[in-house]
Amino acid sequence: MKIYFAGSIRGGRQDQALYFEIIKQLEKFGTVLTEHVGNVKVVETETARKDTDIFARDVNWLTQSDAVVAEVTSPSLGVGYEIAMAESLGKKIICIFRPANDRHLSAMIAGNPRLQVSEYTDLVDLDKIFSDFFYLRNR
Amino acid sequence: MKIYFAGSIRGGRQDQALYFEIIKQLEKFGTVLTEHVGNVKVVETETARKDTDIFARDVNWLTQSDAVVAEVTSPSLGVGYEIAMAESLGKKIICIFRPANDRHLSAMIAGNPRLQVSEYTDLVDLDKIFSDFFYLRNR
Which of A120, B11, B30, B104 could serve as A10's disulfide partner, Cβ 3.0–4.6 Å? Predict the structure, then answer.
């Protein structure tokens, strides 16, 4: 199982430590192609690469992947783009979201009948959400 | 010419007044289907609608549109999603971006060879950018 994990990079890195933990959890279910998204230095390492190379690499990984897990709590152009591309490629997708008073998920995600959006507050919730997604829904 | 203008709504409304001016400029070139994006009360009015209705309406407008203008300065899941969907529908797309020291445009946009990204600082720049886009490139 090849997993594409999508999280905000240039949109904001407030959740980097959480992404790192999510990727560790996802590795129980398969290989995470985008492991760098959880890396504390990703903004620096990715800024050293050419944008066209990053784009080509990510589209290649997305195309290869069996499932896409998108963390959608932080607004991010890249994550929104990847979700729509994953949809057009027919990938299995789950969006995970931490609700809070000042956060409202985009209607393009929350109102999209083809997307599964699961709300969570912590990693314990995610363990159950990912088990259901990978073992029950994707067999 | 039907124009779909994409700007951040739930991702953050810092640029609302600017979106309003951009939409006024775009109206010189055609009908802007998404005029509400520049409205000061859009978060409230859209929150009163069902997300599934907003999604269906916006996909319908995107499908009908002749050109898509995406303001990509603010990170936004919806704008990222709309750009990828517009691309898969074969729409003519221009992304407009205001550079600043602390802002780096997503590599999924900046590194995408099929997207035109035009940098600007003010409405005067946009007048030239839009004239070129609508009159020269889209004939």
Answer: B104
Give pLDDT tens digits for B111-131: 999 999 999 999 999 999 999
Which pTM value belongs to this model?
A: 0.96
A30: domain range? 2-137
3-state SS record for chain B = CEEEEECCCCCCCCCHHHHHHHHHHHCCCCEECCHHHHCCCHHHHHHCCCHHHHHHHHHHHHHHCCEEEEECCCCCHHHHHHHHHHHHCCCEEEEEECCECCECCCHHHHCCCCCEEEECCCHHHHHHHHHHHHHHHCC
Which chain A residues are within 8 Å of B50, Cβ to Cβ?
Answer: 111
* CATH code for the domain in which residue A120 is found: 3.40.50.450
Give chain A's domain count: 1
